[in-house]
Amino acid sequence: MRQGGSRTSVVEIILAIILPPLAVFLHDGIGTSFWINIILTLLFFLPGVIHALLVVTDTI
User: Where is this protein localized, as stated in its record (predicted)?
Assistant: First the structure.
């Protein structure tokens, strides 16, 4: 039986790949990580995805 938290993580990971700023916003709200992710995504898409994955998985 799966817990609700793991399903949310999967959705956040999928969002981090498709729309990185949205995933960071849903995970942390509007804060420093969100604005850093916006800048990374606008300048280079891949660093934005990597940063979003790190934020969503609570690695950073």
Answer: Membrane
